[in-house]
Write a structure and sequence with these properties.
heterodimer; A: alpha/beta; eight-stranded mixed sheet; 7 helices; 9 strands; globular; B: alpha+beta; six-stranded antiparallel β-barrel; five-stranded mixed sheet; 12 helices; 18 strands; elongated
């Protein structure tokens, strides 16, 4: 008898949760308006989960949000499972074109009215990101400042550099399984989150664990 | 006093509007209009009828004309009495008495019932006692009797003609570039948008007709929301023409706006900011022009077990009242590789050892699976089946891979 793929995914997603401390939770949910923030990390470090949690917080507040998806990686089912109201989400698929992603972000920022704009650059090669002129990020900062919007950049490494007001770096600690081979299922992911910006504040160093 | 014209000419309403702004077309053959006040301008009813006949002859109209004190009497008279009929006030019953019972606007069954009673004319119907009619035919009986004696008081159903928002401009010299063309269209749209706003309307469709050398270039832009701002309308036209420009010099420009009732929106004091609908539509149009029509929208998850099943629908993004935030922590997310990456997986017995693909390569240190899934087996074209694994590579990245039809694929990563 076939098992439903979606049903299995949902059950996996529902049992694997990150348990950040309340401090980081408050930091992430209280990203300052009118700024560029960055979520940084390698694959499977929880970048997307944090971004989707922020999207959930914004849509719960009734705001309209946008995801500029450079590599078409966004999963609506995951977002819905995270509590994001998809009816308030504008998803822009950029077809693996970094230039299109940047232009789309520019258009969205200048149109105004979006509470949160997530620019997903996770799968863009670092060399391509390095070639983006710094003037782009200055332009984005000027467009977003003095507005209620937040531009959240999700990437492997910092791309907005000095234009970013907040930076959170995520690292994976371990992946834990349950059951005995070959009947195993993923049980938890252990994460570590570090606040890199602002420099004047003491860094928030926290553990992120998954629970059953 | 009212006048009624009955005929087959399509210019009856035009003739009526020469005498009164209060005109009610009833179907294609009858026009009723008020002539109250014309006695100061033209004279008594006979002189008014003479003037209407004279101007009707000028327009080439052949029609019956009736003048009476109420709307229903004048309609009955014009429909059933040839030529010009003037019914003085108080003598309606006498004027209508000879008309057949079938002239009444009533259900055929009711007319048949009256015929079976031996009622042949409106005069005979008017002679019946009203109470008796009501007892046998109900309210409809009372209405028919009032029609027969010319005492049914109904008012004109005045509806102003549907405004047309069209401007056509013939150009002295052919225009080849988009910029001067948009300059011309901008002027037309500002004029039309002003008229639309003055009439309390908004536009839900823009029709651009460009006369080229020997052919017509037509673009119809359906707007998802009614708009009335000239700048927003111009942006829609600009983006449409930039995406698909005319291929010959333009000799004439015609813009038409289809009117409709404007949006009525009650905003709340505590609602967060949201994009203005007109601005949002312009943004979506620009994004679609940049990225393609299928790449922008709000995702809707389809009711199926097929992985990655969604569609994008047109956005109608609106802010809403804030709700209480539930702190349930972060949930694991998934990131797709679209399209899935073709991979090569090395097996050692039944254990997965190594994966090689364009973007992800490494030794598999942990794997869970397979989970065999399938669906849509009842349709031959969309049947799918596969075996899935969750794998951890040596760099501790967690991926989902699957095997189907003799080929391995890397579907995405957990993040």
């Amino acid at each position: 008898m076939a098992i439903s793929a979606q049903a299995r995914n949902i059950s996996l997603l529902s049992i694997i949760r990150y348990r950040f401390s309340e401090d980081l939770q408050q930091n992430l949910s209280a990203l300052p308006s009118g700024t560029i923030c960055e979520i940084l990390g390698e694959s499977s470090t929880g970048r997307t989960a944090v971004a989707q949690s922020t999207l959930m917080a914004a849509t719960t507040k009734g705001e309209v949000v946008a995801v500029v998806d450079c590599n078409d990686a966004f999963d609506p089912a995951s977002a819905q499972n995270a509590g994001v109201d998809l009816g308030k989400l504008l998803w822009v698929q950029c077809g693996h074109r970094l230039d299109h992603a940047l232009r789309a972000t520019d258009m969205i920022l200048h149109s105004g009215g979006f509470g949160l704009i997530v620019l997903d650059l996770c799968d863009v090669p670092h060399s391509a990101l390095q070639r983006v002129p710094v003037s782009y990020w200055h332009r984005f900062r000027r467009a977003v400042e003095h507005t209620p919007s937040i531009l959240l950049v999700v990437a492997r490494q910092s791309v907005a550099r000095s234009c970013a007001s907040r930076q959170f770096a995520l690292r994976q600690q371990s992946v834990q399984w349950r059951g005995t081979p070959p009947f195993q299922t993923m049980q938890c992911l252990a994460m570590e989150a570090v606040s890199r910006k602002p420099m004047g504040l003491s860094p928030v160093r926290l553990e992120a664990l998954a629970e059953v | 006093m009212y006048a009624c014209l009955y005929g087959s000419s399509p210019r009856l309403a035009e003739l009526a509007r020469r005498f009164s702004p209060l005109v009610e077309p009833v179907g294609n053959e009858v026009v009723v209009f008020s002539i109250a006040g014309l006695e100061r301008l033209i004279g008594d009813e006979h002189q008014v009828a003479s003037e209407i006949s004279r101007q009707g002859a000028q327009l080439g109209i052949t029609a019956n004309l009736a003048i009476a004190a109420n709307r229903s009497t004048v309609t009955l008279a014009a429909r059933n009495i040839a030529g010009v009929t003037i019914i003085p006030r108080g003598r309606e019953a006498e004027a209508l008495a000879s008309l057949p019972i079938a002239a009444l606007p009533a259900a055929p069954e009711l007319v048949l019932t009256l015929s079976r009673w031996g009622i042949r004319t409106l005069g005979e119907l008017a002679a019946l006692p009203e109470i008796g009619l009501v007892e046998r035919l109900g309210a409809e009986g009372s209405r028919l009797r009032k029609l027969a004696i010319g005492q049914e008081n109904s008012i004109l159903d005045i509806r102003p003609p549907k405004p047309e928002y069209t401007i056509r401009q013939q150009l002295n010299d052919p225009v080849e570039l988009l910029e001067p063309l948009l300059f011309i269209i901008s002027g037309q749209l500002h004029e039309l948008a002003g008229r639309v706003q003055r009439n309390g309307h908004a536009a839900n469709r823009i029709t651009v007709v460009l006369t080229l050398d020997g052919e017509e270039f037509c673009r119809v832009l359906a707007l998802p929301i009614p708009m009335r701002e000239a700048r927003a309308l111009l942006k829609q036209v600009q983006l449409a023409l930039e995406a698909d420009p005319p291929n010959a010099p333009i000799l004439a420009v015609q813009i038409t706006l289809d009117p409709m009732e404007p949006r009525v929106l009650q905003n709340g004091l505590f609602l967060p900011a949201a994009p203005e609908p007109e601005v949002l539509e312009t943004l979506l149009t620009r994004l679609r022009a940049l990225l393609g029509k299928e790449c922008v929208g709000s995702p809707v998850i389809l009711d199926t077990h097929r992985p990655d099943a969604y569609r994008l629908r047109h956005c109608a993004l609106e802010a809403s009242v804030p709700q209480n935030l539930q702190h349930e922590g972060f949930r694991l997310a998934f990131r797709y590789f679209r399209p899935p990456l073709i991979a090569s997986v090395t097996l050692h017995g039944h254990r997965l050892r190594r994966i090689v693909s364009d973007r992800v390569t490494g030794d598999i240190v942990q794997a869970a699976g397979p989970w065999r899934t399938s669906g849509d087996w009842w349709t031959s074209r969309t049947t799918w089946h596969r075996d899935e694994w969750d794998i951890v590579l040596e760099d501790r990245a967690v991926y989902r891979i699957y095997y189907t039809d003799g080929q391995w694929f890397l579907e995405g990563s957990y993040d």
